[in-house]
Amino acid sequence: MNRSNRLQAIGLTCAIVSGFGCAGRTSYVARSTIPRSAPREPNCEFEVFTSRPDGYTEIGHVRVDPGLMGSHFYTLDPFKEEIRPHVCRAGGTAVHAQSTANGPEFLGTSRALWTLGTVLRPTEE
Q1: How many Å apart are CA 68 and CA 25, to the nearest integer?
Q2: Element (H, E) at 61
Q3: 20 to 30 Å CA-CA from 62: which of 27, 45, 109, 116?
């Protein structure tokens, strides 16, 4: 079997069993110890931080599981677009993005793989 046929077979297998992890998915888990925030409009704007900012309260977590054939996020802009519906629905105004693993090496250096975000809102005084 040549390379092209192998890739087609993998793609077909993933299409058939996409519910078993070949296709990626994004999930949100609310933090149960604080009151829920009111949802915001679906395409709301929010800030993305790569270090935990002061003045914010954690309201939940969003996780991107790219699966075998899903999208992998090596830069923050596509990661932000992927998590946007979850952050807005949760009432978040910011996300602390976290890379969980290094991506493939490119020219001798590895790249961050963005897969986790802590959803935040301003701390009430």
Answers
A1: 11
A2: strand 56-65
A3: 109
**Residue linked to tokens 């954690």:** 58
Q: How far apart are CA 32 and CA 23, in angstroms?
A: 28
Task: Answer yes or no: are the C-beta atoms of 63 and 116 closer than 8 Å.
Answer: yes
CB 60 within 8 A of CB 28: yes
Calculate the CA 53 to chain-centre distance: 19
15-58: pLDDT as tens digits: 444 444 455 667 677 766 677 889 999 999 999 999 999 999 99
pTM for the full predicted model: 0.69
Residue 102, token pair as written in the block: 């290094």
Domains of the chain, by residue range, sit at: 23-122
